Amino acid sequence: MKVWRWIFYLVLLIFPFGQLASFYSPFKEFFFRVHLLDIAGLCFVLYWLVFVKKFNSPFFFRPLAVFGVIASISLAVKALFLPFGELVLPFFYLLRLYCWILFFWAMTDFIKKEKIDLINLLVLEGLAVSAISLLQYLFLPDTRFLFYADWDDHFFRAIGAFLDPSFNGLILVLAFILCLKKYFGIRQGNKNFYLFFLLLIGITVGLSFSRMSYLILIISFFIILMFKKKYKLLFPFLFFFALIIFLIPKQTGEGVDLLRKSTSFAKIANYRQVLLISKDNLLLGVGYNLLRNEFFKRGFLAKENWQTSHAGAGADNSFLFVLATTGIFGLLSYLYFWLEIIKRTLKEKEIFFLSAIVSLLVSAFFVNCLFYPWILFWWGTILADFTAEIEA
């Protein structure tokens, strides 16, 4: 069991380094990016499968497994009509999906067997992400050179090791929620530590200039205060956060303009493209993660970088991504999984977990966050913690 615990610590160690802890496959025929987090997560699952005595499948596993089966069927059907070379990358995406689905079960067992302060560990992860983001903002604020590596170019924005302000901001907000949980759950003497952590994470979110991150931070804080009946804290929080946004230095450029329109227009164009693909493949979609291939065939991706573009593999909306790749059957099964979680969360009155769910679901309408490896790890971990608690 010590080995299993150390593998989990390895996953935690890799997590805050984001996209920096990844590399491209050495095979030119099968070009894809390999994340060390996926490899560490797979090791965690494989050790569990081989060496650990398992409990029964956790409460939310079956609806999630049903979605995994539908994703497999959607890819298998399309595999009959595609050459082998076009199936390699989607197969690895499907393998990753299964890995993180099993990670949820394995993590639930891990929490039941191991006595660890999981919330504090995730708060530390959030602080590490915040520290890396602040260092990047202070010493490498101009990251426009990343455009030549097929990333979006950003200027004076906290993108951290994830190289994207939206994903970076989402992870920080999820850490902020857990930090609030610790703050409200401990005695007065230790509150100052968590208050400092909240301030640090809040400033880093402000430096992301991500409107999505601002929105989910406010919504999640509002939910917690309403359930806690601490209404008087809402206005000071909004005032202080607005003050942070107003006071932080802003360079010229559209990236730091909160009223920018180009990204909104780009997302709307992406939604239209994905809906067009979905309309033509309504029942089972184009096949689980064959969206990049479909974009290229329809002329939505440039020929010179269609395999390397980091925006080419998905939709800017997780639910549209599910609809386009697994069809209406996949979308219904996926929505049922989330509905079951929400119903049980409301029944248990787990307000911090509920605020995390709302943050994820709101974000999913702006970025494909629900299939992002680092979010899959974070979500699988807190869902496992919630599941282990209600099954205790």
Task: Give a brief outline of the structure.
The protein is mainly α and 392 residues long.
Strand order of the largest sheet: 1-2
Q: How many distinct beta strands?
A: 2
The proportion of residues forming helix, as a percent range, comes to 55-70%
Number of helices: 14
Radius of gyration: 21 Å
- Mean pLDDT value: 90
Q: Which stretches are low in confidence, meaning pLDDT under 50 for 5 or more residues running?
A: none
Main sheet summary: 2 strands, antiparallel
Q: How far apart lie the N and C ends?
A: 20 Å
**What is the N-to-C order of secondary-structure elements (H for helix, E for strand)?**
HEEHHHHHHHHHHHHH
Subcellular location: Membrane
Membrane topology: Multi-pass membrane protein
Main location: membrane
GO cellular component, one term: membrane
What does this structure look like?
- It is globular and about 65 Å long.
- A two-stranded antiparallel sheet has the order 1-2.
- The chain is mainly α and about 400 residues long.
- Helix 4 packs parallel to helix 14 (about 375-390), helix 6 packs antiparallel against helix 7 and helix 8 (about 210-230) packs antiparallel against helix 13.
- The protein has one domain (about 1-265, about 300-390).
- The chain contains 14 helices and 2 strands.
- It is about 65% helix and about 0% strand.
- The model has no long low-confidence stretch (mean pLDDT about 90).
- Keywords: Membrane, Transmembrane, Transmembrane helix.
- This is O-antigen ligase-related domain-containing protein.
- Its main location: membrane.
